[in-house]
Design brief:
alpha+beta, Rossmann fold, Dna Ligase, domain 1, globular
Length: about 475
């Protein structure tokens, strides 16, 4: 695939305006200096412990996420449009979540088939009629953006359950500022270091009761979770306690934290645990990482969970095709950011098209994540395609299909030197009394030549994301 949008170059010899100063600086750097800086970055990341665990790695090894020192740069005008589109989208998703757990107007109006909601594994009937603070369900959303064609931005998917990656956004920026301080003198780059403050303000604003100084905690499943570094990092950056289920208890429908000074009431829980494991009395009885009675306290308005129970129904890939309709229905606006065209294999005609064009399509499990459970047709063998065909036929409602987009590429340092590699972007949208977005997000890069899979679990790396200020 060679016909893709290059972030830095408009043609092999023409540099895009907003990359001009950086390109000039880069061309003046000796290869030895760049190699030394890359080695220094890897050493620092390893010392700090910025690692992740890979699902299915039986040896329990933790890995560094490869970090590339060529930033992804977005000009101010493009960011203005992206930001408006992200705010519009997440606002509509929150309205949708409130609606399906209350009046269900979007279902009654036939915009979305009711069975798409009620048969969804992430729909939580227990949440029906539960009123939550600010009617906000997705306090933290990670929206995956890709660029294709002549440079148009598309939303690839919405992550509303426990979106991760923001710690790498922050650490990548710290690393770039440490390695190349002169670049930050030459460029007007929007800061991201205030994200933990924005996150804490968002969480505090979501407290159920009118409390002057709400207590916020980060709830982690523990150190063996693949994103544990991020849990600990964000708690430390916000100046709040990192807790596990055993550190909390419920009494008279209030949540308390065990401390050396006695029980302390908890008002807001930034939970990094999936719904099923939150409360063994209400969900999975075998959960050893949840808090018995937590749902009762939540239902009675005595604690806020961020994100809310039941948000997963809105980031399921079978619901994704309806988000533009949500925007029109709830906001009476046209979507600023478009979806990628999507075929729903639950529909007979879409299934037929998908099966007939598997070598050309990307097919995903509706509940899949992390780059698992998907087929990239152009990069797959005939045997892999035929095996996946059988899976789709056996459970068509479990899959969607999309065209294989020519994702934009950014020059990246690889073993052979500087070469284009495909990228995406995950901005983080915070919804409380207002909707806030730290400028930029996490740029992920597919380090394997020709690969379109950017997930770290599949060999991807990350870049710093620069939003240039006017």
């Amino acid at each position: 695939m060679t016909n893709f949008f290059n972030e830095m170059f408009s043609s092999p010899s023409a540099v895009r305006h907003h990359y001009g100063d950086f390109h000039q600086w880069l061309s003046q750097q000796p290869d030895q200096v760049i190699s030394q800086k890359r080695a220094e970055a890897e050493l620092i990341f390893r010392r700090v412990g910025i690692t992740f665990a890979v699902t299915g790695d039986n040896e329990g090894n933790e890995r560094l996420i490869p970090f590339d020192i060529i930033p992804r740069i977005i000009c101010a005008d493009e960011w203005t449009e992206l930001k408006a589109g992200l705010i519009q989208r997440v606002t509509a998703l929150n309205l949708f979540l409130h609606d399906i757990y209350h009046e269900q107007k979007i279902l009654k109006n036939g915009i979305i088939p009711a069975e798409q909601i009620f048969n969804n594994e992430q729909y939580r009937p227990k949440m029906h009629g539960v009123d939550i603070a600010l009617s906000t369900y997705a306090h933290i959303a990670g929206v995956d953006i890709v660029r294709a064609g002549a440079g148009e931005f598309f939303v690839l998917e919405d992550n509303l359950r426990v979106p991760s990656g923001v710690s790498y956004m922050l650490e990548n920026r710290k690393m770039m500022m440490r390695l190349f301080p002169d670049l930050f003198v030459q460029h007007r780059i929007a800061p991201v270091a205030h994200y933990p403050d924005l996150l804490l303000d968002t969480l505090r604003s979501a407290a159920q009761q009118k409390i002057d100084n709400p207590t916020v905690v980060v709830l982690t499943p523990g150190m063996y979770n693949s994103a544990y570094f991020e849990h600990a990092f964000l708690a430390q950056q916000m100046g709040v306690q990192l807790v596990q289920g055993s550190d909390l208890f419920v009494e008279h429908d209030f949540v308390y934290m065990r401390t050396t000074k006695g029980p302390q009431r908890v008002d807001v829980i930034y939970r990094r645990i999936d719904d099923d494991f939150l409360d063994p009395r209400e969900f999975r009885a075998d959960s050893a990482i949840g808090v018995p009675g937590l749902f009762s306290a939540y239902r009675n308005g005595n604690v806020t969970l961020a994100n809310a129970i039941g948000t997963g129904v809105a980031d399921d890939k079978s619901i994704y095709p309806y988000v533009p309709d949500m925007i029109r229905f709830y906001l009476s606006e046209e979507p600023i950011l478009n979806n990628v065209p999507t075929y729903q294999c639950r529909k007979k005609e879409d299934l037929s098209y998908t099966l007939a064009h598997l070598p050309e399509l990307v097919v995903k499990e509706v509940h899949g994540a992390g780059g698992y459970g998907m087929l990239v047709g152009p990069a797959s063998t005939k045997a892999e395609i035929e095996a996946f065909r059988e899976r789709i036929i056996a459970k068509p409602d479990g899959y969607i299909a999309q065209p294989t987009l020519a994702l934009s590429a950014c020059p990246t340092f690889v073993e052979a030197g500087i070469a284009p590699r495909h990228i995406d972007l995950r901005p983080f949208v915070l919804s409380g009394k207002t909707v806030e977005i730290a400028p930029g997000g996490l740029t992920r890069v597919a380090l394997k030549e020709g690969s379109l899979v950017v997930n770290s679990s599949q060999g991807g790396g990350t870049k710093d994301t620069w939003i240039l200020e006017k």
